[in-house]
Write a structure and sequence with these properties.
Blueprint (H helix, E strand, L loop, with lengths): L1 H41 L2 H7 L18 E5 L8 E8 L2 E8 L2 E5 L4 E2 H4 L12 E6 L8 E9 L3 E10 L2 E4 L1 E3 L5 E3 L1 E6 L3 E10 L2 E11 L5 E10 L4 E3 L1 H10 L4
Amino acid sequence: MPWRRRKSNAVLWLIILILLGLVAFAYRAELSGYFAKIKNYFSSPAEKKNQTIEQPSEYSLAKFPKDNLKEKELDINGDGHNEIFLTSFAAKKPYAVLADARDRTKGLSEIFDFSVSAAEYDFTSEETPEVSDLQDLNSDGEREIIIDLKSYGAYTGTFGILSFASGKINWVTLKEKNGSMRPAVFQDGASVRNAEVFRVMEEAGKKVILDLDGYTDIEGRWSWEGAVYVWDGKNYAYNSALTDKFLKEIPHP
């Protein structure tokens, strides 16, 4: 009958249209993925950088030892927002970490283990280190941290200088006269016959680091040796002229 034939043809065309729609959808999806790959291939380095997974901006404080905890609020970069420098003393080892003063659960640095980092310099902290001072030693706008390491000799204490950059606390390093490098760790103190002098001073508009040793002979006359370091654009380096100048001018304790 004619009406049945027309109905059968309509159903057939409907099925054909549905199949064509599915094919077109699949083809469009394939093209979309293909052109996305082409766009990624020809994108600029800056665009590719933006496509990478963001690196975490926080460091976990969960593993930081809390034994004998001390803290100091300070503004390292002079932006008006304080950071918190936390130090602790656990299992006879000193540690440090920098945290955000506005969110104390947010760490700004990795955990710094003094005992591992100072393996090349012989000192042993007896209690929790404390911040002694902040000084911008190389005029870059970032302040270095002078810290009392709480390591004691017969008449001296021990101090160190730390820097903070790229989420890490590290020793400031000094370049010696012979070109070797060492961490900025110093003794300071005096007895009747001996002296160790660590100072940060200003000379000709620059910060200089003094590390001088003095001793007396049997007649009580003082003799001095040591080094003065100044930022030379790359390193805190031994400076011969300033060393000679301060060795001549320094009085006895």
